[in-house]
Amino acid sequence: MTFDMSQFHQVFFDETAEHLVNMESLLLAINVQQPESEDLNAIFRAAHSIKGGAATFGFSDLAELTHVLENLLDKVRKNELPLSRDIVDASLLSGDLLKEMLAFHRGDEPVDEARIAVLKQKLEQLSVPGAAAVPSAPVAAPAVAASGRLHIEIYPPVAMAVEELWQRLAALGSLQIMQALDEQADPVIPALAVLTTASPCDDVVEMLAFLLPPESFKVVEDITVEDDGVGFFSLPALAPAGDIAFEEDGFGLFAPLPASTASQNADIAFEEDGFGLFAPLPAATASSKPGVAFEEDGFGLFEPLVAAPAAAPVPAAHHAPSPAKEPVRAEPRAATAGAATAGENSIRVSTDKVDLLLNLVGELVITQSMLMQYGSGLDSVEHENLLNSISLLQRNSRELQEAVMSIRMMPIAFVFNRFPRVVRDLAGKLDKQVELKMVGENTELDKGFIEKLSDPLTHLVRNSLDHGIESPEQRRAKGKKETGLLTLRAFHEGGSIVIEVTDDGAGLRRDKILSKARESGLPVSDTMSDTEVWALIFEPGFSTAAEVTDVSGRGVGMDVVRKNIVAMGGRIDISSMVDIGTTMTIRLPLTLAIMDGMSIKIADETYVLPLNYILESLQPKPSEVKTIAGRGQVVSVRGEYLPIVSVAEYFSIDAPASQPDKSILIIVESSSQKVALMVDELLGQQQFVVKNLEANYRKVEGLSGATIMGDGRVALILDVAAIVRMNLQKAHGEILTAQLH
Predict the structure, then answer these.
(1) What's the sign of the alpha-carbon dihedral 212, 222, 90, 549?
(2) Cα 274-276-281 angle, rounded to 5 deg
(3) Residue 165: Cβ-neighbour burial (10 angstroms; 0-12, 13-18, 19+)
(4) Segment 352-375, tens digit of pLDDT
(5) pTM of the predicted model as reported, rounded to 2 decimal places
(6) Which of 19, 108, 156, 187 is at a distance of 20 to 30 A from 725, taking alpha carbons?
(7) Phi/psi class of residue 387: alpha, beta or left (left: φ > 0; alpha: ψ in -120 to 50)?
(8) pLDDT digits (tens, 9 = 90+) for 98-139
(9) CA distance 41 to 53
């Protein structure tokens, strides 16, 4: 009887990913000079577990590489080899390559076998006691030569104008467009281009990842690799006809049996460390309890059988399974393929099911709002029981909504845990000493944010290391510690989650930013506040770097960081002091699905303002409203003059002109910029279910979505960040015009 092992592939993928994360964390934290034996054993066990699982499921490429790594780690833990930085680096590179190989088996691109062969050779050389350090090989990614060529394919949907994308790529080298994007063709013809650049492929991919979704582009390096004969199986000439032959390492499912063993035992023999499906049974055990034996670690899928099987089936050759939807898990755990035990307290659930449940709860919230709307017009005495039931429904709906939303909540540690490796690698590349401190890793936020936060945070961390923290010599000259401090901090504040990236480096220089802004033709003046000056670094193409490096300096990224954060309904602020440091603060709502908001009225139209942007509302006195030439009307709020933005004028609503002192002003803040939105009436505060406007209509500047009100009408949700940004650009444009005249 054959047994379908593919049904357990997802379990293997999840467990292997967890082992790789644990192994990387231990390697980054280990003391190379005086390593703890328990840490060494834990790293070895992680590699051993991956190898055993890979061999069990027939992923021989993973098993082969992990076996070579395991041999090296085994010698280190047995004190046959001293731990060194080279060994730690090689082990980290092994983890990186194993992640790529694991992604291949989940349906991603195949990994270049030449890279695997180079890494194996490095691990084997490090395993020899007294061997000289092996020069680092380009294992993480093949390097692009000074005239390297990258073939770039662009597929719809494209989130930006293709011409703008070509301009950004052309800034990195020489770009030749081979084929324009044709979305009308059937099938769609992708855009093709060849980029000749000195930039590493990783940097080009990183830039495109900021601009486009991952399925919209593909980058292929124009590198020819000779076949070095790396293969999975080596067939000895004298192998018995009925057996499966192996490489000298013995990787595979079945190893040839020595004659003496074969004559005494019909079971299947193993490597000396015993990984595989079935282990040979000692004679005494076999006679008393025939069946399947296990390794001491417990790799295997079946409990011992009552009767020994007549013959062990040979598993079919594995294939790359189709990509599976990433599951949501309540907490990381070492899952097994067997039946759930009574002690398990978490399950893996597809995110599709959680999203469906959240959508249904959203519809329930809308229905509950409708009932509240209808109930508000009923007599409270005559319909007391009905109104009490509606109130109870409201409370239960709120609790159900919070419970369902909590399922999607995940610790931000899933993002933070990647940065010890990023900081270590970049600090070494930049020849800087940096200590990373993480605070609030258990702070939870929506899984959708977890996936989208990784790239913006990575760019902010890279900027802090490159532009913020100084070299040891510079820090010593300033009287600072040679080791810089980079802090990642997350915490809840009101209805938002706040994430801070803080460094104790050189800080932002106001004069340098203004000078660069003038060179770039941006409308600036010496009277701008520090907050306005700091915001200039988010302008497209803006960079104060003296030279372009492989870390930063191209002026690509910070504008996309802000764009991505704003797309999540958040904002980013900067505070900085010269030679003290810089803090980048990201504020996000707890979830994108359901929000608290204030409904407002302009003429006969109803709009919704997200509550997390609102500071206060007021009706000003006539004396508090002023008109400034070239700037329009402003209102004085406790000595601070704020620009007044008429929502009716912004959206060209046909309504009678109104005066600020006869209207309601709502003070909102985005990116440390405040404006007063002029509206006719405040209708009330409540929860709203956010519906995507682009998916159902199209993108409208100044609107972030729509919602269904209690009376069944559709209300549009204001994009406060876009309104504030447009008002600021308008003001800067007027300042520049005044300066020219």
Answers:
(1) negative
(2) 60
(3) buried
(4) 788 788 788 888 888 888 888 888
(5) 0.53
(6) 156
(7) alpha
(8) 999 988 988 888 888 888 888 988 999 898 876 544 444 444
(9) 18
